[in-house]
Structure formats: structure tokens, C-alpha cells
Design a protein that fits this description.
The complex is a heterodimer of chains A (79) and B (224).
Chain A (H helix, E strand, L loop, with lengths): L1 E8 L6 H12 L11 E7 L5 H16 L5 E7 L1
Antiparallel strand pairs in A: 1-2, 1-3
Chain B lengths: L2 E5 L6 H10 L7 E4 L11 E4 L19 H11 L3 E5 L1 H9 L5 E3 L7 E9 L15 E8 L3 E3 L2 H9 L3 E5 L10 E5 L5 E4 L17 H13 L1
Parallel strand pairs in B: 1-2, 1-3, 3-4, 4-11
Antiparallel strand pairs in B: 5-8, 6-7, 6-9, 9-10, 10-11
Classes of the chains: A alpha+beta (79), B alpha/beta (224).
Organism (chain B): Actibacterium atlanticum
InterPro entries (chain B): Class_I_gatase-like (IPR029062), PRibForGlyAmidine_synth_PurQ (IPR010075)
GO molecular function, one term (chain B): glutaminase activity
């Protein structure tokens, strides 16, 4: 079973890297980009076969390591 | 005073920290403890977490180090009242363990900053900073890419209210919230800071402003 975790800076936390990307897009002539937020995608290959259990375990992983919940939010997709 | 410096793969200020602890704080012989150890040597007064790029800054700065086997021993040591000093990557590790609140984010200017900076000593009510006058300006070097301190309003109010901001930047180099450069734990025995006191302790460093921090620690240990 595979899991995909998206980690993003929380809303309200300034994302300097996203801002730099936004400026660079403007320089390349892509007008009208009003905001860019940069995050991470983490893919996990799990032995677990029960989707609900897998989701619960991956959420625990996010809380303990994959995300820093002081500044980041996360979402989990199980496939 | 008995001190240990924790060493992770990618630590690069471990030796400088040990030299400062030996030569300035008068430590007998600072021990270097590898991150795979699960316990600290007996009878320690203090643990230092040095600067560097532990685990290549993978995932987030300090994140992997904060989950290494030795990290739990450091947390237990701090919770029992042991002194812990985390500098630069060490500060990042301390926030990742939860010993200190908040997080260090990428510098607002996105550049690695390596230069001496002016700091204001915000409080001398700690065994780290009582060798300075509150409000004094000192110069320490910074060398970091992720020193932009971030915490929510409630945490900031608490840090300010409890006089736990140890140092602020006089001229904020990295976008850090409220110019914060270093903070103390609730019991004032854990200090995390981005600037490097161990890089300004002898004349050859060009500046000895950091020496007072190590001397203050040595004085505190002599009393215990």
C-alpha cells in the first residue's frame, strides 16, 4: 500500500521560497501569478494492507517526524 | 564542570565548542558523545549541541538529529534540570525536540549569512548570560541558512512575559520574528541561539565577546 504525504507551510506563515519562485515566474513573463506556496511531497511504501490503519499510522508519522506542526500542515493520501 | 558535546554526522562546530568549554569554561575534558549512544556519561553538568548540518539538513534542519538515539537522553537530562546549550544547528535541534518552542525557518532573504552581527543581551537573568549587562551589545558571528525564528503570538507573548528572550539582533539579518536570536527554556537552563559564542572566545577569533558566556557557565557550575 502506498501513501503520499503533502507537507505545506501553514497559512499565515510567510513562505520566502514560494515568494522567490513567484518573482522568478514574473521575470520569465508569466503574469498574473498572485501567490506561490512551496511544499514537500513524501511517498511511502507500506506493508500495511488496511487503508484506515495505514492512514492512522502515517498521520502519527507526520506528527512525530514528517511535518513540524509548529509551522507546517500536512495531508495524507492512501492509494 | 563536566560537559559533553553531542556529535551527529554533519556536525562541524563540535570541536570549537569543546575547545571553548575546555579553555574558557575550565572544563576538565569535554567528552564528545556520538549520536548513536542511548545515554549520556554519568555526572554531567552540561550538554552542548553544536552547529553544523546534521544529517545534511535532510527533511528539515535538525529534524533527524532530534529523533536520533541520543536525543531522548538529552531531553531527559534537560527535564531533570541539566544545562543544555544549542548553537545554530543545535538551536534547530532543540526546537525540533520540543525543549524550546517555535521553529527556525529559511532566512527571509534566502541567502546563507556568514558575518559578525550585533546582538542585544535581553536578559542577564540566566546562568548563560549573567556575565553581561542587560541591554549590552555584543558581537557574535552568525553562519546559517535557516535562522528565521518563527513562533505563534501566544508563544511570543509567553517568551516576552517570562523574560526568556536571551538575545535579539540589533539589525535583523534573517527575518527572525521580533529579531529573536536566542531563547531560554522555562527553567532558564536550556539556551538555544543561532549566533556562535564559541567562535568568539579568543583573540585569534578577532573578538572575545563570547567568552563571558562560557565563564558565566563555569561560575554557575562551580556553585552546584
Amino acid at each position: 500500500m502506498k501513501a503520499r504525504v503533502h507537507v505545506m507551510l501553514k497559512n499565515g506563515v510567510l513562505d520566502p521560497q514560494g515568494e522567490a519562485v513567484r518573482h522568478a515566474l514574473g521575470t520569465l513573463g508569466f503574469d498574473g501569478v498572485e501567490g506561490v506556496r512551496q511544499g514537500k511531497v513524501i511517498e511511502l511504501d507500506l506493508a500495511e494492507t488496511d487503508a484506515a490503519k495505514a492512514e492512522e499510522t502515517v498521520k502519527d508519522m507526520c506528527e512525530k517526524l514528517l511535518a513540524n506542526t509548529v509551522i507546517e500542515s500536512y495531508s495524507v493520501e492512501i492509494a | 564542570m563536566r560537559a559533553a558535546v553531542i556529535q551527529f554526522p554533519g556536525s562541524n562546530c563540535d570541536r570549537d565548542m569543546a575547545v571553548a568549554l575546555n579553555q574558557v569554561a575550565g572544563n576538565e575534558k569535554t567528552q564528545i558523545v556520538w549520536h548513536k549512544e542511548t545515554s549520556l556519561p554519568d555526572g554531567l553538568d552540561m550538554v552542548a549541541i553544536p552547529g553544523g548540518f546534521s544529517f545534511g539538513d535532510y527533511l528539515r534542519c535538525g529534524a533527524i538529529a532530534a529523533r536520533s538515539p541520543i536525543a531522548q537522553a538529552v531531553v531527559d537530562f534537560a527535564n531533570k534540570g541539566g544545562y543544555v546549550l544549542g548553537v545554530c544547528n543545535g538551536f534547530q535541534v532543540l526546537t525540533e525536540t520540543g525543549l524550546l518552542p517555535g521553529a527556525l525557518m529559511r532566512n527571509a532573504g534566502l541567502k546563507f549569512i556568514c558575518k559578525p552581527v550585533d546582538l542585544t543581551v535581553e536578559t542577564n537573568n540566566s546562568d548563560f548570560t549573567n556575565g553581561y549587562d542587560a541591554g549590552a551589545t555584543v558581537i557574535y558571528p552568525v553562519a546559517h541558512h535557516d535562522g528565521n525564528y518563527n513562533a505563534d503570538a501566544e508563544t511570543l507573548a509567553r517568551l516576552n512575559g517570562e523574560d526568556r528572550v536571551a538575545f535579539r539582533y540589533a539589525d535583523n539579518p534573517n527575518g527572525s520574528t521580533e529579531d529573536i536570536a536566542g531563547i531560554l527554556s522555562e527553567n532558564r537552563r536550556v539556551l538555544g541561539m543561532m549566533p556562535h559564542p564559541e567562535r568568539c572566545v579568543e583573540n585569534a577569533h578577532g573578538n572575545t565577546d563570547g567568552a563571558a558566556l562560557f565563564r558565566a557557565l563555569a561560575g554557575a557550575m562551580a556553585l552546584t
